[in-house]
Amino acid sequence: MVKSVVFDxxxxxxxxxxxxxxxxxxxxxxxxxxxGFTKQELDQICYSLSPDVWxxxxxxxxxxxxxxxxxxxxxLQRKGHEAVWFDKRRDPKCLCLDNIEGFILNVPTEYKLGFxxxxxxxxxxxxxxxxxxxxxxxxxxxxxxxxxGKDNELIAYLKEQxxxxxxxxxxxxxxxVDSKQGWxxxxxxxxxxxxxxxxxxxxxxxxxxxxxxxxxxxxxxxxDCQS
Length: 227
What we know:
This protein is α+β, with helices and mostly antiparallel strands. The chain has one domain (2-185): Alpha-Beta Complex (Cathepsin B, Chain A), CATH 3.90.70.40. It has helices spanning 23-32, 39-49, 69-78, 151-162, 175-179, 186-201, 215-226, and strands spanning 2-8, 11-17, 81-85, 102-113, 116-131, 134-137, 146-149, 168-174. It is globular and about 50 Å long.
């Protein structure tokens, strides 16, 4: 594993670079800015998710990594965090960035064997987070972290990324924030609650009638009055 601490005007940045297919491992460690997880730990999570199978569906058959989102979610839970899938129909402006620990972006990537480009597609995990007031792309395939900028630049960057149908975005938040949907800015959250309430308040006319009224008997009485 290639680890480095990069220094810039905002201080030090922990950055792991790509080894094998361990991008999920690097994304997690880059997100938390420490060597917190190991390959052995993520492998153990895979076995706990699918304990009674010959071929584990959550990682590479060759043992090179290639972990799926279930492994990432389980690893985050060990740190008291949750991964929230971001609906790309939303505008990233709805995000309350102060309540979000970071982001994990899933992107398609080309697969190479040495210098040979193979006709295969792999999924690649990328961590984004704020460090000393500035957001960075901590992609393990980069030589050094890539500066994104302040809040407005991040929103524009996220918008550009999720405009691609092949990319998926996950928010990393604490359990408390997840339980209260605190990753949404208040006006958006209130709007969502109101929409849910409006849907719950819809009822059929029959639902508002007293339960002791027999609709069939009423229909008979009405015909008798008309005759």
